[in-house]
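Worked example 2:
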Amino acid sequence: MPELPEVETIIHSLRPKVLGRTIERVDVLLDKVIREPEAEQFAKHISGRTITGVERRGKHLLFNITGSLVLIVHLRMTGRLLYVAPDLPRDKYTHVVFHLDNGKELRFHDMRQFGTMDLIPADRLKNFHSLNKLGPDALDPSLTRDVFKKMLKGRTGQIKKILLDQTFITGIGNIYANEILWKARIHPERSATSLTPRDLGRLYHAMREVLKTAIDHRGTTIRDYVDGEGNPGSFQELLAVHGRENQPCPLCGNFIVRVKNGGRSAYFCPSCQK
């Protein structure tokens, strides 16, 4: 699933392409992608309107549209938004096509068909069901180290599961949780209540550094992820532990271990992350 760095990279690649462009019409090829309103009404309401802003909220892409509307896109596991020429052949995984006034197309492509789109009035955004329970963005400037420590105070449970909880903090998925905890030298199964102030400080700085570095490298491409122009990321070349079971830790040389943690794979170094 695209996480914060991937969605941020998609935003950066699409913004100069689609900002100010008018959506002349929309082809909805798979109705279930559209959650609100119904697919026919979705295509009708968005056609003829102009994209005035492109933003991110956690793992969601937000397109501000004239008429005080917001298009909310969640890519889920394998979704892609691709800015392409109209003569590029469509495959069976192309489910929504936005025809732009410059002759280009913005296509939503999703092999697993879990991705979603909602078109809502802008005044509903704050209380929209998939956004109103999200915690602060992991890179929000107002999320200082002290605020982060206060948020964790009194939290119980394993620290990795807390980092993955989008109601606690939004944008971090499995890949970056593994990398953040390795950089902070914290075992993924440690209880949050066992973390010292020094641990929490390392965790905060690791979170910021890993996510920003991943954005600088345009995200992580392991299977499906590409940006809005179809280009893969390169952060996978810098992964220290994720997907590296039985390979040496970059720091100490001991072998990386993989265990199941909350239904997901936790990768860590048993020597560096006690």
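The longest strand covers residues 49-57. The chain has two domains: 4-127, 145-268.
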